[in-house]
Design goal:
The C terminus is likely disordered. 77% of the residues lie in helices and 0% in strands. The protein is built from 15 helices and no strands. It has one domain. Helix 2 packs across helix 10, helix 4 crosses helix 7 and helix 8 packs across helix 10.
């Protein structure tokens, strides 16, 4: 079940970057559309959990829900949605692949454990990939706002890494609550914060939100991207560890790059492709020991969820 859910999650997240891009290109305000997406998805999921008596309204008044929502939803998607106004969906996806690198560095700082040599090599390779990715933006002919968009996506991954590590503690602290309910609560908070940000920074034109492309994009992101994808992610964090679910970030970018080029005719330079492959290679090196352990434990993980780390 763990492996199956992981594959489904990778496929879902590989398509969400393009869905976001389609909605934004259709004229949907980035912060408003992101806020509507996550708030509605959170309300629907949480209502279902309350109806099934797997969650209590009191959960919404816990500060942990606000903090997780601020990091995993508000911080990550405010930056991503804004940046996709100026970046292709494939480039945004590949830059998001730096999150596992940041997660590892954050965990190492918290635990004060020394990194193995292969992990340091992976860090250097990953950073080299980022530089390759940003190189076109450093030339005189490239757009400054494109380069800024890249930096903003990278900044968003700082929130992602912190939220992923923190969410593990939250799940342990609220073991009596369903991970789906926890995920729904944090999406409600994150979505509400995005709507507040939109109120002060954007002029929302309802006509731009009711175009066919914007509506299809929004519904897909609410139902598939948020209700399905993020629920599976949160479930995997609970069943394994913060590193394993985050490995979607070096599988889904390949899906996103391919879909962007084939379906949306997004440009892809040789440097960007090389940078993307280098980033993914670095992240694999960083997590090579964890991946080996997960592969060795795969039979027991699939057969007995109680044996997860």
């Amino acid at each position: 079940m763990i492996l199956f859910n992981y594959i489904v999650m990778c496929l879902i997240f590989g398509t969400t970057f393009l869905a976001i891009k389609i909605g934004i290109d259709a004229g949907a305000p980035p912060f408003f559309s992101a806020g509507v997406r996550f708030f509605l998805a959170g309300v629907i999921l949480f209502s279902i959990m309350v109806w099934k008596r797997k969650a209590s309204i009191a959960l919404l008044f816990k500060k942990e829900m606000f903090l997780t929502g601020f990091a995993l939803t508000f911080g990550v998607f405010a930056t991503l949605y804004w940046a996709e106004q100026y970046l292709s969906s494939g480039i945004a996806a590949v830059l998001s692949a730096t999150a596992p690198l940041m997660i590892l560095l954050l965990q190492t700082t918290i635990t004060r454990q020394s990194l193995p040599t292969v992990a340091w090599i992976g860090c250097l390779v990953g950073f080299a990939g980022v530089l390759l990715m940003l190189l076109p933006g450093l030339t005189v002919t490239s757009s400054t706002v494109w380069l800024l968009g890249c930096v903003v996506v990278l900044f968003g991954q700082v929130f992602y890494s912190a939220g992923t590590v923190y969410s593990r503690r939250v799940i342990q602290r609220f073991q009596d609550s369903s991970p789906i309910a926890l995920n729904a609560a944090q999406m409600m908070y994150g979505g509400a914060l995005l709507l507040i940000l939109s109120l002060f920074t954007e002029k929302v034109d309802i006509q731009s939100m009711v175009t066919p492309a914007a509506i299809v994009s929004l519904f897909y992101l609410i139902i598939v991207g948020s209700m399905m994808g993020h629920t599976i992610f949160y479930w995997l964090v609970a069943k394994t560890n913060p590193v394993f679910p985050a490995t979607w970030l070096y599988i889904s970018p390949l899906i996103a790059l391919t879909l962007g080029v084939i379906l949306y005719h997004e440009p892809l330079s040789i440097l960007s492709l090389a940078g993307g492959i280098t980033i993914i290679g670095g992240i694999i090196l960083i997590n090579i020991n964890s991946l080996k352990q997960l592969l060795e434990k795969k039979p027991s993980m699939l057969g007995k969820v109680s044996h997860h780390r």
